[in-house]
Amino acid sequence: MEYSRRKFISFLGKATLGTVIVPQFLISCGNTSKPSSEFENTPEAVLKKLKNVVLEAIQPSAKDDLLLANGLKYDIIVKYGDKINEQDTFGDNNDFTCFIPFDEKNPKDGLLWVNHEYINQLFVSGYNYRDSDAIRTKEQVDKEMYSVGGTIVRIKEENGKWQVVENDPHNKRITAHTPIKLNWDTPIAGKTTAIGTLSNCSGGITPWNTFLTCEENYDNCFGEITYDENNKPSRIPSSYYGWEKYYDHSPEHYGWVVEINPKDGSAQKHIALGRFAHECCTLYELADKRVVAYTGDDKNNEHLYKFISSKPSSLKEGTLYVADTINGKWLALDWENQPLLKEKFKDQTEVLIRAREAAKILGATELNRPEDIEIDPITGHVLVSLTNNKSKNDFHGSILKVEETDGKYDALTFKASTYIAGGEETGFSCPDNLAFDMSGNLWFTTDISGSSMNREDKPYMSFKNNSLFVIPRYGKSAGEVIRVVSAPTDAELTGPWFSPDGKTLFLSVQHPGEQTKDIKSPTSTWPFDKDNIPKSSVVAITGDLIEKMNKLRQIENIN
Ligand code: FEO
Ligand code: CA
Ligand code: CA
Question: N or C: which end of the chain has fewer CB within 10 A?
């Protein structure tokens, strides 16, 4: 794949802002694309035309539909169950998306990676946990295991419409049945290969153009190992999906960051980044090609981590740190040099497998569900979504701002503060996925849980359905929180990713109709296809407004 590393930040550095820190090279992953040459050479006449496009908020809505602000339209690229080739179909509950073009001169043809986080059993296998007589069969479990993991599909834009290139040799599924190498010198639970990846929530991209997919709520599938005060392990007897009934896979094989090679679908799990409910993994490449990887543990009172590699382009050699946000310190999860860890664990491998416990021993700060992480291309600050923490009466969440000392991503000290808080005043609640567009505007999605949304007895009533918001950085709306897309019933919008020409926003519509109890009367029927049941789908959002926002900085500089 000939997609060279472009200095995404280089043109942002020309911005006329007071304090512009220009990192040497920002491969902002999680959710930010790199601009194509077409993007950077926009004729002035086009910019002048786009200047007249109005950014107007949509109102909160409880409608079962994907509603868009004026100036936007959408097409479905692929939905649950669609054939991608002769033997494979698209998985369920799509989350993170990442698009890499084959050739940077043609931003309209490339590979799309999509995470499949979990399954809605009612629609995938027919298993209904509400039915006390329901027996889980192996066939059902196999279907469920096939429907998680991820998909690689070649997509192409022709005549303004993005479509899957069916049967393209790149099209591939990675599922809970796929063998995946463990990138570590010591076996994990006695093995050097794990079977499958699952709970793939958000992710990232590497500077060497591979995809990262993160295993979040892995304990739902094969359970978890817990330890008593004498370090004696015991396995939680049953998990939510109960796959352990038919497959004796070790819980220690899940909860990792997984790297996928787009060319052939080969995968590896990166043990050095620790094991917990990884939401995302956002990389920054230092001048000497070492990488810094930020990753959050999306659970109440869990932590924010960063890995600093000691060798160029390595996600194996280096040190994992956890954040003490009160004192602004990165604490090394390093068995060799931390007597407290030596006391509790037998080696570094055990520290990484039981990263949560190790983090707590060192005094890491409990956070309110750290989810997506992005590096602000204008200020260089690291933004972290803290979705909520009902156990601490934080119902609406916030976005945390981490300022690394001297703007150095390998610094071991930092300052943490709140960037923006959710609530009635700002008009959003429960921030989750973040994405900066190519002008540095911040887009983010919300994740109010399906069981709390639109209910009089919960504090989320006024926010209505989950949505996509944008905070512009320039012009008269700079700093405002503007709702631009509203999700169908019970759904969450996830995985925002911009195409390299700044003309398309790829977005996942995840779990519409999630609260359905009876398949004959689903709570949502979006995307309204012939089957009349809800289906998670990836959409391409296009239109003048996407283009305007991506080019906002350039537009602001013309008369
Ligand atoms: Fe899968 Fe933390 O969202
Ligand atoms: Ca998420
Ligand atoms: Ca979430």
Answer: C
Q: Which ligand is nearest to the CA of 508?
A: 2
Of 459, 462, 517, 516, the C-alpha closest to 489 is: 516
**Residue 10 pLDDT greater than 60, yes or no:** no
Q: Could you say which ligand is closest to the alpha carbon of residue 302?
A: 1
Q: What is the pLDDT of residues 155-214, one digit of tens each?
A: 999 999 999 999 999 999 999 999 999 999 999 999 999 999 999 999 999 999 999 999
Tokens of 236: 């939680």
Query: Chain-wide mean pLDDT for the chain?
Result: 93
93 CA → ligand 3 middle, Å: 12
| Helix, strand, or coil (residue 280) | coil
> What's the CA gap between 228 and 305, in Å, rounded?
25
Distances (CA, A) of 431 to 62, 369, 443, 514: 18, 10, 10, 19
Residues whose Cβ atom is located within 5 A of ion ligand 3: 432, 447
To the question of domain 5-556 being in CATH 3.40.50.1360, the answer is no
Tokens of 199: 């709970």
What global pTM score does this model have?
Answer: 0.95
Instruction: Please state the rounded mean pLDDT for residues 354-371.
Output: 98
Give the pLDDT score at 314.
Answer: 98
The rounded Å distance from CA 493 to ligand 2 centre is 9
Domain-by-domain residue ranges, the chain?
A: 5-556
Does the beta carbon of 297 lie inside 6 Å of ligand 1? no
> Would you say residue 14 has pLDDT above 60?
no
Strands (E), 355-455: 367-368, 370-375, 382-386, 398-404, 414-421, 431-436, 442-446
CB-ligand 1 contact for 122 (6 Å cutoff) = no
259 Cα: distance to centroid of ligand 1 (angstroms)? 18
pLDDT tens by residue, 259-279: 999 999 999 999 999 999 999
Residue nearest atom 1 of ligand 1, based on CA coordinates: 201
What is the Å distance from ligand 1's center to 264 Cα? 27
Give yes or no for a contact between 144 and 133, defined as CB atoms under 8 angstroms apart: no
